[in-house]
Design a protein that fits this description.
Number of helices: 16
Mean pLDDT: 91
Number of strands: 14
CATH class of the largest domain: Alpha Beta
Helix content: 40-55%
Strand content: 15-25%
Shape: globular
Largest sheet: 8 strands, mixed
Length: 413
Amino acid sequence: MKSPIPKVLFLIEDGPYLYDNRVRREAICLREAGAQVSVICPNAGDEPFHSEPDGIHVYRYRKPGLGAGLVAHILEYVVSLTSHLFLSLLVAFRHGFSVIHAANPPDLLWMIALPYRLFGIRFVFDHHDLVPELFEARFGSERTSLLAVARYMERMSFRLASHVVSTNESYRQVAIARGGKNESDVTVVRNGPDPADFPETPPAPEIRGLAPVVVGYLGNMNPQDGVDYIVRAAAVIKNDYKRSDIAFVLIGSGDSFDSLVALRDELGLQESMVMTGRIPWDDVVANLSAIDIGVQPDPPGGLNDHSTMNKLMDYMILGKAVVAFDLAETRVSGGDAIAYASGDSANAIAASIVELADNESHRNQLGVSAKERVMQKLAWHHQAPNLIAVYQKLFPSADLGAEKTPDHALKKS
């Protein structure tokens, strides 16, 4: 006899549900497989307290924007944890849940799961980032006491987890070696894009008209993301290569957004570089459809070497040539379909962009190879069964299965 379906509560602190493509894909996948799904997340600014996008109950709270410093982050986390706690009680009362599925960063949401574990609620830790390495990249390794706290929080996230979902094999090995998890309790679910999220879309004319060759970026703009490499590379292309036929569109926002705008203006790039901030998903796809080259500027280092970037998958599924630094997990994702910039500098990024700008046939070849690689190996329909298998293991007698997941055509809202 089948047991009741799982009731899953997703917790997100890092950003709104509708902007978190990975969590949204996971939530939709589980709902389509038969689970009841709720989400708690920050408000994007003008969203309602509660709504039901994708047939999922989403509850939102106001997260303060207090700046990029360490103290500001700590205050933000206090507000977020308090909000998650009260909203989890509301969800428990209205809908109930049998598992908490929490995505990092930060490695704090185990605190919300801890009291519920006493009542038999399972905890799935969705390991998106290496937070201790992220802390070092943002604030430096000299803050040893705070770094020790970050490592403790990571250990507790692993220790409390009934199961760990890792974005790649590198993260899986961290969960096993550093987190002490059994191999059977860690499953890789990669950041595979859903083709339904990238419908055939006419290129945005205002972006396509910027220049004969348009270079794009999509993603967060925080210190560790290396977006300043693109801005400085644009200056090198303009001043050293004397090129006026290459323009840029940078999509996204983050703690570094204002300083990046200031750097763009300081370098005199206002006419050749558009910075959109966060925009609706339909506009994201239209803008990316208008570019010729996508850039993943994340610099080499302990965090980025072992991370899988969503932006890379987004460029690839759209059939765009990609420039990236030669990082271990980027090699796993991109293989030979990526143009790898040598070294670690804006000059290296600039040289790779110019090389691709001058070779349209090679650009097109890379784009075709990239899209084929995603569709054959990396897209979400290759990853979804791994996520469902996690929940089948946690709820072996539940009526939950991949045969219930035909609907991948939900549109971004």
